[in-house]
Amino acid sequence: MEIIEAQQKRIDALEKEVRRLTNELRKYVNENTPSGSIPPYLKKLEKTVDRYSGNDDKEKDPPKENERNSRPDHVDRTEHHSLEKPVCPDCGGRARRRGTSTRKRIVIEVQLPKAETVEHVCDIYQCEGCGKVFSPPVPNALPKAKFDIMTTVLISYLFNASKMSIDDIRSLLHLFGVNASEGSIANAMKRLKEYLGPYYGELLAKAKSASARYKDETSHRHCGKNFWAWVIATTDWVYYRITERRSHKVAVELGSQEGVDIMDGYAGYNKLQCERQRDWSHMLRRAKKPIYDFGDVENYSAYQRWVKRLARLFHSAKEAKKMHGASERLRKRFDDRLWALLKSAPREGMNIARVVNYIMKFDGEWFTFLQYTDVDPTSNRAERALRPLVIKRRISQQSRGADNMDSYAMQMSLYMTSRLQGQNYVENLSNILKSEVSSLPYKS
Fold this sequence. Notes:
This protein is 43% helix and 9% strand. It has 444 residues and is of the alpha/beta class. The protein has a domain at 280-377. It has a 5-stranded mixed sheet. Strands 1-2 form a two-stranded antiparallel sheet. A hairpin with a 4-residue loop joins strand 4 and strand 5 (238-243). Helix 4 crosses helix 12 and helix 7 packs antiparallel against helix 8. The radius of gyration is 31 Å and the shape is extended.
């Protein structure tokens, strides 16, 4: 009897330790964790399926060009090489040229740019009527800026597109002959806030007026504190905003009464007045990763069978939309099927109650994508838009100063929008800055 009691105490202690480790693991791997953040050794092994085995109807992808050995089609410059006194490299004997035969080789050469320090001398004028004294503005340079427009754009591109830290940018500029401090580089990017403001406001208006808006948020370190980076991603626009708190007030401010918002289960989005589509990937990850003990194998098997039925229902909804198109009738039909599935859920277990309550909490918001053609069932577009900010957060750790934080959000909005539309970020930012400089008044 004493042995049984000792074993029971040991079992209770082990179960308590398992629960503790499970809760600790959920801090890093949970239903909100994107697949790219999970280490490969924590993922289940998947069988590799040959796309073309046993199926002659599908055409294979065209072979890709060998980029490693490819050469450009055009030649910018031709150099001819000859020997004044040709000598055989083996025996040292005298050699002569073999007629007009030559050997050609194409080599790609990169010329490092060289920085110039330019002194601008501006004439001073005085009006004969009112006596006002003025001088023309310096072209291709922002007022009181240390760098010209192209250098400022290059710094912004390296910081946002290439994800380089300020110290790495300083080292690269030093290679070009530019001795710049980290403060000068940070001030150059901070001043962009003064000129990107109008574009930033127009971008928010365009993003809010889109028919389908994908929303998400992630943490952002600012001056050692935890801030939040919000994103609105559409098919043509990407808008970022960094705020001190993660509250429903920001969600409502970035919301609209028209169109459809696609988001996860964050409660801050519950006050939005438009149509809503909840993220199926978040819900299925929550269902496939139970956190409570089942007690026996039978309850676990019943739970797994019900989760598979839920996943099959989601797959059937996507296939039905492809086959029949989007319609309100199709949405209602699958809403009814979801309710029938919830009624057939096992009655016992905290895990099943956790998933059922989560689904019922957002009743009527799971099959909105079946009514609208351009709406997806997941917010993956917003998560992909947040990924550059997450990578940059790991490199630069945090931002300093409110103006630098706002300027970073504006620059990233312009960069991701340009990238989404297939445009050149350098050209777009240069055109914005040059248009602002050209409209500057004469300096008094």
